[in-house]
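haha ok so turns out i had the wrong file open the whole time. this is the CORRECT one, sorry everyone. sequence first:
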Amino acid sequence: MTQCKCHTIHASHEHLSWSNAHPPVLTVAPGDVVEFGEMDAVCGQLSRNSTAADIANLDFTRVNPVVGPVHVDGAEPGDALKVTLLGFEPSGWGWTGIIPGFGLLADEFPEPGLNIWHYDKGLGSPTLFSSVAKIPLRPFCGIVGVAQAAPGEFSTVPPYHTGGNMDTRDLTVGVELYLPVEVPGALFCLGDPHAAQGDGEVCGTAIESPMGASVKLELVKGEKLRFPRFVTHEPVTRHIDSRGYEATMGIGPDLMTASRDAVRGMIDRLMALHHLSAADAYMLCSVAGDLRVSEIVDVPNFVVSFYMPRQIFE
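then structure:
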């Protein structure tokens, strides 16, 4: 019986595009574990002492790097790469920012904003949003993906059918993610660690937090996936719903417009209930609330709802 091995890859092996021409920096066997060193979504441009002015000065050619690629022996087009998230090494701090020109309501929030978070590295205690809210921690990597068969280089900012910047908060420890393999070796990459996020990441950032991560890489031969899929082995709730939710809605013929209306409604609600500024309410929506499609069949209008757990304010 072959014993799986553990490998280490350092954050210095990062790049800012997807391409099947990037040479692998590590080759592993199916079943091996790869430990990624501390990754950072902005290549170290922000620190615990940063201010909103640093957000305005971000160099976007150094945003959303991915670490890798990792070549998995035996991976061939038509297979699925099974990625199991095993654990994280948190740094104890993170940030949430309003980046001009980015986010669901970018046109309404043209000024940069920044909240610095400090949290327990053991992840046992929630992190505080001023004196208003306590946010439970549930780390995951926003970027998990493999190379496409198409030639050329592709930005790491959008997601693709092969994964990438999916920003799906349920892809956390213990979850099994399956990615469609399109090139020999799969060429797997990881990046964009988050300490917490709401569904939708509406302001464009989560609790962005430098951290390391470990994953197990396995193969499912001949699955022929068209898009990623994943399996969870426990409830996906963060157990912060015991006090119910405040929920706002957007209704109309366009899902994007309805989403914006639902988030606007929650920003107004948080400002009224908790005396937050609009910018702080927007950032809190991004890290703690969930944007959901409630109804998409009763044409011509659709319903999008935004859920904010009431428990975080107690």
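The helical segments are 52-56, 255-274, 278-288.
again sry for the mixup
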